[in-house]
């Protein structure tokens, strides 16, 4: 594995003593204790005094959001990110899509016997760096080791808690005919970045994941009194699958314009070579927002002032018909139905 120079590899547990994660009977043993006391607690800033089966939280709000997700991406490291930062971003973004301000995360690690300690340390540091940027704290977790050949290196489960500090009802059921659809940036980069590394593909430029925490941008929209009806991040199945899910849940038709949807030239080229449609390729830092027409231009202007929204665009609208269809005007001017993807185009991308 190629070392990433941005990581400080001064691991708190002597790599010479434990070069690889060894199988510990019952999940205990000296190594597991050292992982918790010398690696996880100091890195994540969790008080040693609360080494207990659960963390106690003090929330001053009545309404919270809670989510959980698991990450099994292969390979563990890819251009612009890794499984650690992805686990933080994915859970933070799920909370943000509910209109919540993320506060606390848990982290559960499934480690494969024989995993290099250096690899685990890189992932742990990456998680902490991502958590600091996202302004969340990792306050509890768990570690298990499985037999060699049963875990593919590392699997991570994260759960997150956030507070909802507004009166908006952000859900697919709030989508209404006439709503305008906004996208915060170009699509398809995450899936293609993973695919390129996995298959050893080389393009003229390195395509990097768009993985990023979206909560700051979302909170900025909410605090600007934008009447947000729905938000969704465009992960597995990409934009097309997400729009179909919302269309079905809200019982509305959604119309989008292909010319308005930003796609990087290198991503478009890679998709053409691989036979993929960017609409169905996964993203980890992109989301769509449904707002009333009166708020559309204001929302677009606010999004464009943020680094994660500087390519934001109005890409479509909700129509009055109610056949639960997603249609798109193509670049050549023809209309076509955008169906839900059958199966999974790119497995193990998150």
Automatic annotation (TrEMBL):
Signal peptide: none annotated. Residues 52-164 form the PurM-like N-terminal domain. Transmembrane segments: none annotated. One of its GO terms (biological process) is protein maturation. Residues 176-323 form the PurM-like C-terminal domain. SUPFAM superfamilies: PurM C-terminal domain-like (SSF56042), PurM N-terminal domain-like (SSF55326). NCBIfam families: hypE. Belongs to the HypE family. This is Hydrogenase expression/formation protein HypE.
């Amino acid at each position: 594995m190629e070392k990433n120079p941005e990581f400080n590899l001064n691991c708190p547990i002597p790599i010479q003593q434990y070069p690889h994660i060894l199988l510990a009977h019952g999940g205990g043993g000296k190594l597991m204790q050292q992982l918790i006391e010398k690696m996880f607690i100091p890195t994540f800033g969790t008080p040693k005094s609360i080494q207990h089966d659960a963390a106690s939280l003090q929330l001053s709000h009545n309404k919270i959001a809670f989510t959980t997700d698991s990450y099994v991406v292969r390979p563990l490291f890819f251009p612009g990110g890794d499984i650690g930062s992805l686990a933080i971003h994915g859970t933070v973004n799920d909370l943000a899509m509910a209109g919540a301000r993320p506060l606390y995360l848990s982290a559960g690690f499934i480690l494969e016997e024989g995993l290099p300690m250096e690899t685990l340390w890189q992932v742990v540091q990456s998680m902490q760096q991502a958590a600091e940027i996202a302004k969340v704290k990792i306050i509890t977790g768990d570690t298990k080791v499985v037999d060699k050949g049963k875990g593919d290196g590392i699997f991570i489960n994260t759960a997150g808690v956030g507070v909802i500090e507004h009166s908006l009802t952000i859900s697919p059921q709030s989508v209404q005919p006439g709503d305008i659809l906004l996208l915060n940036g170009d699509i398809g980069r995450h899936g293609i970045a993973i695919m390129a590394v996995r298959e050893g593909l080389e393009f003229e430029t390195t395509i990097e994941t768009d993985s990023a925490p979206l909560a700051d941008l979302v909170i900025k929209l909410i605090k600007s009194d934008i009447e947000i009806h729905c938000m969704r991040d465009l992960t597995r199945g990409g934009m097309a699958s997400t729009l179909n899910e919302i269309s079905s849940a809200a019982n509305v038709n959604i119309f989008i314009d292909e010319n308005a949807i930003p796609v990087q030239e290198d991503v478009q080229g890679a998709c053409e070579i691989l036979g993929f449609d960017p609409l169905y390729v996964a993203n980890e830092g992109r989301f769509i927002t449904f707002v009333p027409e009166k708020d559309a231009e204001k929302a677009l202007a606010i999004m464009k002032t943020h680094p994660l929204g500087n390519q934001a665009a109005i890409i479509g609208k909700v129509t009055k018909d109610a056949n639960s269809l997603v249609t798109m005007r193509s670049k050549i001017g023809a209309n076509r139905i955008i169906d839900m993807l059958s199966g999974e185009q790119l497995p193990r991308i998150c």
